[in-house]
Each structure stands twice: as C-alpha cells, then as structure tokens.
Amino acid sequence: MFRTRRLRKTEGIRRLVRETKLSVDDFIYPLFIEEGKNIKTGITSMPGIHRYSLDRISEELDEVVALNIPAVLLFGIPTHKDEEGTETWNDNGIMQNAVRFIKKNYPNLYVITDVCFCEYTSHGHCGIIHNNDVDNDATLVNLAKQVISHAKAGVDMVAPSGMMDGTINMIRQSLDNSGFPNLPIMGYSVKYASAFYGPFRDAADSAPTFGDRRTYQMDPSNRDEGLREATFDDEEGADILMVKPALSYLDIIRDLKNNFDRPIACYNVSGEYAMVKAAAEKGWIDGERVMMESLLSMKRAGADIIITYFAKEAARILNKR
Ligand code: PBG
C-alpha cells in the first residue's frame, strides 16, 4: 500500500520534507506617512496599522528594523491635493522627505516608494483626467517627473502602481537618462480592479470621487491577460513583477512564476488583512494560524516576495522558530 503518512508522523520528519518555508527575508512592510506633526492615527478597518507623521515614524521603523524586516513600501498622504497631483513631484513633498529621513536614520532598511497619483489628486484617480477618464500618455509625463523626484531623494526602488500602459518603459528611460541607471523598478504588473482594496482607500485617502478604476486596472475574470501585462513589463525592463491582490489570485502568481525568470512579488492587500483581523476578533478563526497559512500559500504559489501588513506579526513568529 502507498503510505504517505509515514512522512507525516513526527515534527522531525515533517520539518525534513517541508517544501515551502516562509522567512522574514520575504517581507516588505507597507507604511502610510502623512504630512503634518505628531500624527499616529489608527485605521479602523486595519487593526494594528496606523498613519504616521514623519516626526513619529521612528516608533514604527525601530520595530521594523529590530524584527529584521528587510524593506518598507511607502505611501505618502499629502495635505495638498489638486487635479494633476503636482505634489507628487515636489522635491520637498511628504514622500521625498520620508525617503531622505529613513535613508539617513536607517541606512540599511531598503526603501521602496509606491509611485502613483491617487493619494495626491483631488478626484482620487491614478492620473490626469480628460473626458472623464484617465489620460494614459499625459499621465506618463507626470509619472516621469515623480519618479525622478523620488530618485533624487535617494529611494532604493520605485514601484509604479497606476496601471498606465507604457509605464515601465517611460520610467526606465527617464531614470537612465537622469543618471539613475542602477535604480530598480518593481512593476505592479498584474493589478486587478479589486474590492479587496477597500480599507486601503480609507487608510490612504485615495478613493475615487467619481467612477471606478476599471478602465485601467484589470478585470478579475482575466488570466491570459495577466500574462500579457507581465510580458510587457518584463520586456520594458521591470526588475520585479508583482501580482495584486494575492489570495484570490494565487493562480496568477503561479503563472508568472512559471513564465518569467524574474523575482515575483505579490501584494497581500488591505481587504485580505481586514478579513483575517475581523474574523479573529470575533473568535471565529485562529488569526495567527490563518495569517501564517495565507502567507505560506502565497509563497507556495510562487511568490518570492510578499508585501504584507502582517509583516511585523509574522516576523515575530518566524524569529522565534
Ligand atoms: C494605488 C494603490 C492601491 C493600493 C496600493 N497602491 C489602491 C488602489 O489601487 O485603489 C492598494 C493596497 C491595499 O489594498 O492594501 N496607489
């Protein structure tokens, strides 16, 4: 008889035959940084996650570094919003100041910036609006300005999340032509128009004031198109390809892993975090175990890198093992 249970008998043998192992090295921790002073505001739908002003961000960063988490992904929340999101390329903007502050005080922490407009535009869309829709090519011009401004501030990697066509090409060329040929790009390559972003839009003040993002983010029904999107980013020179969200898109993560020889990242988004937290609070699930199992499933699906609000909690568990 085939007896698969022989290799499950004790923790010793289970450890030996374990195929997938999570590590703190896999994690990127997202941070919301708000312009202003003495801010530490909890986000109701994301227990444990806060918006910080720069003068208080060390509370968070000290912990991240102590837990040995290698990287953070920054989201800026500015006080000034306008039609184009001009604040995104202000060399003294919240994002640029945050990058300078973190690189100065935590030089070994790897700093990635989310490159987008939705937190910076009065209408909440990810670019310039013409005729009630985001104008792709006009937005690319501003994207280049934003990215160069982040680069000058000293960021380690940029991650454009706006889903405009030609983004990677535009950013790569601008960086190369401005003296930043060694700055890597992580593409939000396969990003779906997802209801799982709900809590984030409260956290980052970035919900669109009209319409939705379905003319630029992908239709959740489409799998082949995911490969197409990733192919463009790959050919345009993205250094890392990302799938977002993660849990409902594990098939897409595996597709990318099987088809591209680049590191694959996934974004375990706000709604995925909120669901686990809410059910755990009610006592309906064991939150810690569900968290670890979900993160493991992303890695097993093929993610080399996981962007997650659980990074600190998971790191605490992994560091004890
Ligand atoms: C866009 C952006 C979003 C997220 C990351 N970057 C929101 C959106 O596309 O509406 C979502 C992250 C999350 O839900 O955790 N700048």
Instruction: Provide the helix percentage.
Output: 25-40%
CATH homology-level superfamily:
Aldolase class I
Helix and strand string, N-terminal first? Answer: HEEEHEHEEEHEHEHHEHEHHEH
Assembly type = single chain
Rg, rounded, reads 20 Å
CATH architecture designation = Alpha-Beta Barrel
Low-confidence stretches: none
How many domains, in number, for the residues?
A: 1
Biggest beta sheet attributes: 10 strands, mixed
CATH topology: TIM Barrel
Counted beta strands: 12
- Ligand set: ligand PBG
Alpha-beta content class: alpha/beta
Name of the CATH class: Alpha Beta
Question: How far from one another are the termini?
Answer: 35 Å
What does this structure look like?
- This protein is α/β, with parallel strands linked by helices.
- 39% of the residues lie in helices and 17% in strands.
- The protein is built from 11 helices and 12 strands.
- Strands 1, 2, 3, 4, 5, 8, 9, 10, 11 and 12 form a 10-stranded mixed beta sheet that branches. A two-stranded antiparallel ribbon has the order 6-7.
- Helix 3 packs parallel to helix 4 and helix 4 packs across helix 5 (167-177).
- It starts with 10 loop residues before the first helix and ends with a helix.
- The site of ligand PBG has 10 residues, from helix 6.
